[in-house]
Fold PH domain-containing protein.
Amino acid sequence: MNYDYTLTDTLKMAVGSQTVLRKGKPERKCAVLQRFFNPMLIFSLLISVYVLIAYINGDAPLTPKAPMFLGEPADEFKYAFRFYLFIFLNILPTILYVIGFAFSVRQYKNAEYAITDCGVFLTKGLFSKKLYYKPYREIYDIQIRKEISDILCKTGTVTLSFEFPEQKIGSLTPVNMAPLKIKNISDYMEVYKLLQENVRRTNYV
């Protein structure tokens, strides 16, 4: 349990009188590393390599060998339009990558979890904080998953799967819902064992 971590007021109010067994946040370095190695980085690097090679070979805009792409310099509007379009399309992946990296700070700030004697509380979100709660009786599967960032930071992600009954022609059919993830935590094995114990106690005793 992370004794040094203090729950935010939002989660404190949600937990209420329940006993907190474990609490915490994702590892900061892991959350940042996960955003750093996102697919847009690879796309940005490929685009950068393409532009560099194009300029070296003389096939890029503003080089003598590229009039067919941009139009004749005499047609200033067409030349300028195609030039700026070329530049924009090449830097767009980098812009999206930088924005995504900046948003990771906000996502990290809104992410926290609390495991109580009754269930699991989880908050996440980008522009606003969303609160999720699942009692142990609704959890039917718990898994540990490791992404590249988890392997590098020696952390893990605990995934909680659950279902609820849906009425279909007079019968109840379990419907799988999107799982909840306690992401990038260093004590993932302890969290996994604690959840297994509480789910087993609630559902099978």
